[in-house]
Amino acid sequence: MVQATPLLLVLSLALGAHSLSPRKCNLIGHWVNDLGSHMKVFTVNEDGDFSGTYLTAVTATMNEIKESPLEGSLQRNNHKGQPTFGFTVNWTFSDSITVFTGQCFVDKHGKEVLKTMWLLRSRVDSIEDDWKATRVGINIFTRVQSQK
Ligand code: BTN
Questions:
Q1: Which domains are delineated in the chain?
Q2: Which of 17, 39, 64, 111 is the most buried (most CB within 10 A)?
Q3: How far apart are CA 85 and CA 100, in angstroms?
Q4: What is the CA radius of gyration of the chain?
Q5: What pLDDT is stored for residue 20 in this prediction?
Q6: Which one of 32, 34, 56 would you pick to mutate in the ligand 1 pocket, going by the greatest count of ligand atoms within 8 A of its CB?
Q7: Using CA atoms in the order 85, 91, 92, 95, what is the torsion angle rounded to 10 degrees?
Q8: Cα 30 from Cα 38, distance rounded (Å)
Q9: DSSP assignment of 43-108, as one string?
Q10: For residues 94 and 59, is the Cβ–Cβ distance under 8 A?
Q11: 94 touches ligand 1 (CB under 6 Å)
């Protein structure tokens, strides 16, 4: 029984590490998407609220692009890992708003990937133009590896 203890310990550590692997998804950090836009998430609190900054690579306007704040929410029921989330970017250089919704996945190479969909609402002058005011799309984010 005494000799079995280290074996059980190694076994439980191995099984534990395996079942923990999907939980590797952690939104905090620096991300880049398929358009070349950069997103930084600074903090996620115990309720799942998070904040950060977004530097888009593209714009639907003629305005000069500036870094903009984002506020989001990570699903609180994250017992199984690979959590869902949503966030809003309140553009500082335009009168638009973008909402993103997505899920943090760990791919087959163990790499974190954020698969998102977004709605970009542009301001229009009249209700008659409402029909053309919302764009929709997808973005895929991967983590920017920190320089060592
Ligand atoms: C604007 O043009 O009014 C603000 C910038 C919008 C950028 C959009 S948001 C969805 C898509 N994903 C990005 O990274 N950038 C564009």
A1: 29-143 (2.40.128.30)
A2: 39
A3: 8
A4: 20
A5: 47
A6: 56
A7: -140
A8: 7
A9: EE-TTSEEEEEEE-S--SSSSPP--EEEEEEE-S--TTSS-EEEEEEE-SSSS-EEEEEEEEEE-T
A10: yes
A11: yes
The residue type of 127 is: I
First CA to last CA across the chain, in angstroms? Answer: 46
Q: Give the span between the Cα atoms of 6 and 90, in whole angstroms.
A: 54
Pocket test for ligand 1, best of 120, 123, 135 (most atoms within 8 A of CB): 120
Q: Could you say which DSSP state residue 34 is in?
A: T
Q: What pLDDT is attached to residue 78?
A: 83
Q: pLDDT truncated to tens, each residue of the chain (148 aa)?
A: 445 555 444 434 444 444 444 557 899 999 999 999 999 999 999 999 999 999 999 999 999 999 999 999 999 888 889 999 999 999 999 999 999 999 999 999 999 999 999 999 999 999 999 999 999 999 999 999 887 6
